[in-house]
Each structure stands twice: as C-alpha cells, then as structure tokens.
Amino acid sequence: MLNKKVEKKLVEQIEKEGYSSSLYLAMASWAENNGLEGTAQWMYAQSDEERMHMLKIVKYVNERGGQAVISSFDRPPSEFKNVKNMFDQVFEHEQKVTASINDIVEVCLNEKDFTTHNWLQWFVNEQIEEEASVSAIIDKLNLLGDHNLYLFDRDIMGLRGQQPASME
Ligand code: FEO
C-alpha cells in the first residue's frame, strides 16, 4: 500500500506535470501562429512528454493501491514576449519541477518508502536531461541573437521532432 504522505505528493505532481503539458502546448500554439515551425514542433513534442510523465505517475499511484486523483489545470498564458523569453520561462519552469521532484524524494526517504524512492530516480534523471537540453537551446539563442531567428528555428526543427513519446 502506498504511503499516504507520498501519495499526496505524487497526486500534486500529477497536477504539475499536467500543467507543464498545457503550458508547452500553449507555447507550441503561439510559436506555430508566429511562423516558428521548428520551435512549435519542439514544444508539441515537449507537451507530449509532459503528458507521458503525468500518465506515468497516474499509473504508478493506482498500481500501488493509491488513488490518482486528477485535478483541473491552471490556464497557461497565451501570449509570449519573444522566443528567448519563452525558453527562459521553460527553463525556470523545469527548475521548479526539479525542486518538486526532489521534494518527493525527500518525503520518500523520511517515510522510508524505498520502492517509490527507487521508482522516482527515472524522474530525477529526466530532470537533469530536460534542464540540460533547454539550457543548450538558450545558449544557441544567445549565440544567434534575435535577428537570426529563422536560422534558430530551422536548427531546432527535428531536434526531437516527430519522436513518439516513450514510457521507458
Ligand atoms: Fe515533467 Fe519537464 O518535467
């Protein structure tokens, strides 16, 4: 049976991953409407990944005898200042998600739920990758500057593009 404190944290995380998926979907839509096809493709793929993260937690909670309650998600912004600002927001958001995952890790240790602690390591590693990939994109944007947005957009296209979301 899933520890109640751990369950509560995981249910909160379901909401956070769901919001992340909506946020990146909103960014994808904005990019698409602004002619940034590559950026939109990246954001759509990111949104799918976040939904996959959410599902992964839903299934784990239910499998362990908890109840994966689904809440409504906050409405994400629909306007973004520019591409650089948008990716800065992604980076900031991912740092918050990392902190939130670390928080669950801490609760697992306090509650001696070593099974969930072990299972959570996938998310710990995923956050390292996500922060690194967004940080690399921001470096690229800084290098190219605003006047080379077309080049940036072509460059980012296919970076993760059509890859199907993986549950591994
Ligand atoms: Fe699911 Fe980007 O953290």
TrEMBL record:
GO terms for cellular component: cytosol. It comes from the Bacteria. GO terms for biological process: intracellular iron ion homeostasis; iron ion transport. Residues 1-145 form the Ferritin-like diiron domain. This is Ferritin. InterPro entries: Ferritin (IPR001519), Ferritin-like (IPR012347), Ferritin-like_diiron (IPR009040), Ferritin-like_SF (IPR009078), Ferritin_DPS_dom (IPR008331), Ferritin_prok (IPR041719). Iron-storage protein. It is an enzyme of class 1 (oxidoreductase). Gene3D superfamilies: 1.20.1260.10. Its EC number is 1.16.3.2. GO terms for molecular function: ferric iron binding; ferrous iron binding; ferroxidase activity; identical protein binding. It comes from Marinilabilia rubra. Fe cation binds at residues 17, 50, 53, 94, 127. It is found in: Cytoplasm. Belongs to the ferritin family. Prokaryotic subfamily. The keyword tRNA-binding does not apply. It catalyses: 4 Fe(2+) + O2 + 6 H2O = 4 iron(III) oxide-hydroxide + 12 H(+).
